[in-house]
Amino acid sequence: MGVRAVTADMPDILAENLSGKAVMGSDGTELGMLYNITMNLKTGELVDLLVEPNEELGVTLDFPSDDRGRYQIPVGRVQAVKDYIVVRR
Q1: How far, CA to CA in Å, does 56 sit from each of 38, 59, 60, 82?
Q2: What residue ranges do the domains of the chain occupy?
Q3: Cα(7)–Cα(88) distance, rounded to whole angstroms?
Q4: CA-based nearest residue to 23, from 67, 39, 63
Q5: What local confidence, expressed as pLDDT, does residue 61 receive?
Q6: Rounded distance, CA 4 to CA 66, Å?
Q7: Is the pTM here over 0.85, yes or no?
Q8: How far is CA 1 from each of CA 14, 15, 73, rounded to the nearest angstrom?
């Protein structure tokens, strides 16, 4: 049984289908790969995408990062989910 990922700006998507997807900025810049999604356990609301940066690209983002250098991108920044997860920079 999959977990449904639902936000106001994103259609219903099975969270398991997001695992390992590339994350791209709305300007076309490849940002990295989706590592995980954080969730508010009390409300079930999705909070952040944890994105493993592609260090070969040398892209620096204006998002906070965790202690392992993964960017924490608010789920509200997601604009589209197709072959890539597109986020507003």
Answers
A1: 25, 8, 11, 23
A2: 4-87
A3: 15
A4: 63
A5: 80
A6: 24
A7: no
A8: 10, 11, 26
